[in-house]
Each structure stands twice: as C-alpha cells, then as structure tokens.
Amino acid sequence: MTDQRKKNYMKLEFPSRTENVQFARVSVAAFVARLDLTLEDISDIKTVVSEAVTNCIIHAYDNNSNGLIDVQVEITDNLISIEISDYGCGIEDIEKAREPLFTTKPEIERAGMGFTIMENFMDKLEVFSEIGKGTTVKMLKYLHCNDKAREN
Questions:
Q1: What does the pLDDT look like over 22-45, one tens digit per residue?
Q2: Of the listed 20, 25, 55, 83, which one is catalytic?
Q3: How much is the pTM?
Q4: Would residue 110 show up in a list of annotated catalytic residues for this protein?
Q5: Is 63 labeled as catalytic in the residue annotation?
Q6: d(Cα 3, Cα 46) in Å, to the nearest integer?
Q7: Is 78 a catalytic site residue?
Q8: Pick the catalytic residue: 63, 110, 120, 130?
C-alpha cells in the first residue's frame, strides 16, 4: 500500500528586511490556521517564526537587506514542520548559540533568547549551519488531540 498521508506545504522567499518579519509570521499563521490548533499554539508559531526570521536578519546578514530568507511550512498528518533558512555567515558554534542568553550582539535588547524561545514553544528544534553558506532552523510541532484536551 502506498503512503497516502495528507500533505500540504507553502514556500516563501523574501529579502532580509525587518518589515518582512510581520509578513512571515502572519503568512505562516494563516497557513496553519485551518488546523485544529489552540490560540496559544498559533501564537507560539507566530513567535518562533518571528524569532527565526529576526535571527536571519540580525545575525546572518548583519541587518543588510540584500540577503534572502526562505520559509517553508509543511503539514503532514499530525505534524507541522517549519524551516527557515538564510544564506548568510553561518553559526560558528551551534551548541553555544543555543545556550540561553548567549549572543553575538549584546547591544541588542532581548538578545540571546531566540533559540531558547523556539525550543520552548515547539516540540523539536534542529539547527544546521555552515560557515559562509548559511543556516537552516527546522522546527516541528505535533498536533495533539485538542478535542480530548478541551473535554477535560
């Protein structure tokens, strides 16, 4: 029997400009809104998209609007997969970058919590990076049985 899983996806590509953070978060939220998600789930997804896109702008491209950011979202059965990629400078030490409060930009308010927020709001976070070639952040959110949770 062939795999007949339901699958839907979207792809976005846009320049690394701060005004596109809102575009990315609203687009992803609109795409997943048809699912049986709580308002908290949708808010969490919007937040992690904002954090990841902002990281691309600030860290990968150092606020240079000439870079490109790719956002891919895939829905398969009970899973939402969000991948956000840049083609910037890359991350030297991924484990260090994932530590709470670590930042390469201490002058920026709220710096150092992006990966921590993404990890706490999603079910799984993976970071792939290569110096001089860019970074991809892959986040997974499992669709839990919200109907049962609402009954209790």
A1: 999 999 999 999 888 899 999 999
A2: 55
A3: 0.85
A4: yes
A5: no
A6: 30
A7: no
A8: 110
